[in-house]
Amino acid sequence: MHPHVEMIIRLACFLGVLVVMAIWELLAPRRVLTTAKTSRWLSNLALVVINTITARIVLPISAVAAAMFAESRQWGILYLVDWPMWVEVLLAVLIFDLTIYLQHVMLHAVPLLWRLHMVHHADMDIDVTTGLRFHTLEILLSAVIKLALIVVLGAPAIAVFLFEVLLNATSMFNHSNISLPPWLDRVVRLVLVTPDMHRVHHSVIRRETNSNFGFNLPWWDFLLGTYRDQPSKGHDKMDIGLKEYRVESQVERLPGMLLLPFARKSDSYSIAGEDVQSNPD
Questions:
Q1: Do residues 63 and 147 make contact, with C-beta atoms less than 8 angstroms apart?
Q2: What are phi and psi of 178, to 5 degrees?
Q3: Could you list the pLDDT tens digit for every one of the 281 residues in the chain?
Q4: Whose C-alpha in 92, 104, 131, 183 is 20 to 30 A from the C-alpha of 167?
Q5: Phi/psi at 240 (5° precision)
Q6: In 3-state terms, the chain is what percent helix, strand and coil (to 5)?
């Protein structure tokens, strides 16, 4: 796939999902937002721009380009077998998704990495832009892990492209402040992480923060014991964010987000923090 074609398609999908989710949030919001939406959106989207530019400079090769490079040299485990293309694509997408799940758990389990991931959780509301709000260093770490996996696995370029589009779209979808009928949510979350399912993960209560790690598929949470059905206080009354960062100026402006990993208060929500049983929140 030509790099310009890939970029145009990905940008179109990104903007399309962002606009659809934003309109949906206006027409059928799930929760009343507690902070100023305009300033949050400006800061969150500005961080996306910074992350995109930085990643292009530091890691000039895209995931799809890396897959094509590995393909040209027949690198990777999948080149040791002769399976139908659709099987290899499906398997690669599943492995990528499991890796994202495990990476997400790792971001909560390792205190140093939790410092980076705090930027995502410190958002005092959760909407479509929260699904794009990640610290620049976390984005670079994720990109390095992804590139390494692509080369080791020998994933087809089409699988990498599909997963990149899927991950971006589902991250915006499951962070959106949209209302789904309960019956529809129960059906959809059997195959796709829904906003109500993922919102639990953004609760200020630590045992809820450390659950529902999936971004695309819910199955890893179901199988590995990290699934939590609903927040204890209900979706309307639950508090979003981190208890130690409840002052808007601390976490909702771009400089504060970039400096947050270097703040003193950092470990209270990490899986590796103090014993959950002794402090259930």
A1: yes
A2: -120, 155
A3: 666 778 889 899 999 999 999 999 999 999 999 888 888 999 999 999 999 999 999 998 899 999 999 999 999 999 999 899 999 999 999 999 999 999 999 999 999 999 999 999 999 999 999 999 999 999 999 999 999 999 999 999 999 999 999 999 999 999 999 999 999 999 999 999 999 999 999 999 999 999 999 989 999 999 999 999 999 999 999 999 988 887 655 677 898 899 999 876 665 677 765 444 444 45
A4: 183
A5: -100, 145
A6: 65, 0, 35
